[in-house]
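Duplicate of earlier report; P-type ATPase input re-posted below.
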Amino acid sequence: MAVKENKIVTSKYTLASFLPLNLYRQFSKYSNVFFFVTLMLLLIPAVSPFPPYAYLTAFLIVVGISIFKDGIEDLIRHKQDKHANERIIHKIMEVTNDITEHYRELDICNAAGTNFAATSSYVEDLRVGNVIILRENEEVPSDIVLLNAKVFDGKHLKCRSFCFIQTSSLDGETNLKKKQSNVNALIDPCVGTRPSSDYEMCECDKRIISNFKELRSLRRRNRFQRHKREDKI
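Output:
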């Protein structure tokens, strides 16, 4: 089973580990240990003349309520994780054959004769090297590198080498921060395209994505060759 590299997990327990781990946490508290030791002493008739039933009932109620509260809180965290991990994002795919019904066509073809398509995916299924589309006011699903940005001037989509993001969920600041694309700065921006869909691509996008994938392939080959040389040494 493949590991989901971008999966968010904030919950503390699973269904199998909840009871043993939570009991361990309960008895990690000094107060619970004290009351448990006292209860054990009350169970010895020679030590205590009082019946331990009332004390046992109170102890079980206190620990039971604490376990129930932890279970409810962790269940809420599981639901929040599921909601965050199953948010829909759109990845750019480069396909050489016919685009299947699972893909949404972005552009008919580029200069190399290949097609670009966008496919819907969960946030947790993102992998290093994936190219994704983010629209205005969408939440950034992971650590990303800005490749290109577009602005709509009322008639056309124009490329630009920067965008503005808000990081209030990280540091509480609501002011917009400017992020620059070093990749886009090396390419002459296009004049602008009239958008016909939500995922309109221009020649800038094609060149940037192609250069990005070629750079990743080159680095992967260099890393592989370096490992081979180290193995020989």
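Confidence is low (pLDDT under 50) at residues 99-114.

Merging into the original ticket.
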